[in-house]
């Protein structure tokens, strides 16, 4: 008989790897990642007066209407009351700060003078550069993986946010939480997390960086499916691969159009390539009597003519045929590719190839030379 599913608790990771500076935790949705991290942060505040920083990507994410219920679960199950020995029962959020509060015998709300935490968004962190946060020892970056795109130059914005909070200290734990919504997350390459997309559920990988003390512990949380699943899984049991992220922690991959016609080499009128992350895609522009289209598949051999073949990349090159952003160019080929995308005339060898291309287009749309 399978063991009953239990919600995730981050404390074991912090205990097993006490010298890590970053803790990256990802897996299926609604399995307790955020609840556990916030619970740990409240514990630190109760024991040592240490504050936490809750970080999101957009300013909209940290507005009062969106964060006022962040601790409702801890309040409803009595966790806040037990953590603070009955002194406080709830958490109030306003003006970028979290405060403990309670209701007295007269039905009046009493709120702590000292705030237990702060909320920041990466998009407007520039405004906090002159402030000081010496008591913040836990930084929680929630939903760091995105399926809808990232901020331009987001890695640098995140690093600047950390620098603003940490200053010259080395006693801060950084917890990054994500659902398995996108295998092509810029944080993976920027942090050198080279094996994260092939990591198995229920495992922890640890990354070290040269002769420095920097250590990153990465956990792919175990899937609830092995333990009978969550009660809510019944609502998402449709035969749709995109829902496997919710019910089992599998990487979310959309279904993309596949080619249902055959063509010959002479039907290929142009070729191009796309370098994104560790993937190299080969795009063939095909012209048939029914009209032109593009077929995208994986390129497993080196590009034959690096001085002539058009290559779309994420890095600047001095070569004329290397183009940094597909959607920022106005040449005939680039405009044709974008038009085919808009008109659904791009076909993919696999859904994985579709994911790579989708993420490259999102990156290209968001890139700005000003950042």
Q: How would you characterize the overall build of this protein?
A:
The chain is α/β, with parallel strands linked by helices and 371 residues long. The protein folds into 2 domains: 11-248, Rossmann fold (3-Layer(aba) Sandwich), CATH 3.40.50.300; 265-366, no CATH class. Helices cover 23% and strands 26% of the residues.
Order of helices and strands: HEHEHHHEEEEHEHEEHEEEEEHEH
CATH architecture of the largest domain: 3-Layer(aba) Sandwich
Helix content: 10-25%
Number of distinct beta strands: 15
Biggest sheet: strands side by side, in what order? 3-4-5-2-6-7-1-9-8
Which fold does the CATH topology of the largest domain refer to? Rossmann fold
The structure class reads alpha/beta
Give the CATH H-level superfamily of the largest domain. Answer: P-loop containing nucleotide triphosphate hydrolases
- Give me the number of helical elements: 10
Number of domains: 2
CATH class category of the largest domain: Alpha Beta
């Amino acid at each position: 008989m399978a063991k009953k599913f239990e919600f995730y608790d981050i404390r074991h990771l912090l205990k097993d790897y006490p010298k890590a500076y970053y803790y990256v935790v990802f897996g299926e949705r609604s399995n307790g990642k955020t609840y556990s991290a916030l619970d740990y942060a409240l514990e630190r505040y109760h024991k040592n007066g240490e504050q936490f920083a809750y970080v999101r990507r957009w300013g909209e994410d940290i507005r009062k209407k969106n964060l006022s219920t962040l601790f409702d679960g801890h309040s409803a199950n009595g966790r806040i009351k037990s953590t603070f020995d009955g002194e406080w029962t709830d958490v109030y959020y306003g003006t970028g700060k979290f405060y403990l509060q309670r209701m007295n015998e007269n039905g009046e709300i009493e709120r702590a003078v000292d705030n237990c935490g702060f909320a920041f968004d990466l998009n407007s962190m520039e405004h906090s550069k002159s402030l000081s946060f010496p008591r913040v020892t836990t930084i929680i970056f929630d939903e760091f993986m995105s399926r809808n795109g990232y901020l331009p130059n987001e890695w640098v914005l995140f690093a600047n946010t950390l620098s603003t909070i940490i200053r010259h200290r080395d006693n801060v734990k950084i917890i990054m939480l994500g659902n398995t919504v996108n295998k092509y997350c810029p944080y993976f390459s920027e942090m050198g997390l080279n094996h994260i997309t092939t990591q198995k559920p229920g495992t922890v990988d640890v990354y070290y960086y040269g002769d420095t003390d920097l250590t990153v512990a990465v956990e792919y949380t175990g899937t609830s499916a092995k333990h009978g699943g969550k009660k809510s899984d019944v609502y998402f049991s449709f035969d749709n691969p995109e829902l496997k992220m919710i019910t089992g922690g599998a990487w979310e991959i959309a279904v993309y159009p596949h080619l249902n016609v055959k063509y010959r080499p002479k039907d290929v009128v142009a070729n191009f390539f796309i370098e994104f992350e560790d993937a190299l895609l080969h795009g063939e522009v095909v012209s048939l009597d029914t009209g032109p289209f593009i077929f995208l598949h994986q390129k497993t051999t080196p590009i034959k003519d690096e001085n002539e073949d058009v290559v779309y990349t994420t890095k600047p090159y001095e070569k004329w045929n290397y183009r940094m952003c597909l959607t920022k160019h106005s040449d005939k080929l680039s405009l044709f590719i974008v038009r085919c995308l808009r008109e659904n005339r791009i076909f993919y060898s696999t859904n994985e190839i579709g994911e790579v291309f989708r993420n490259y287009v999102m990156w290209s749309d968001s890139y700005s030379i000003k950042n």
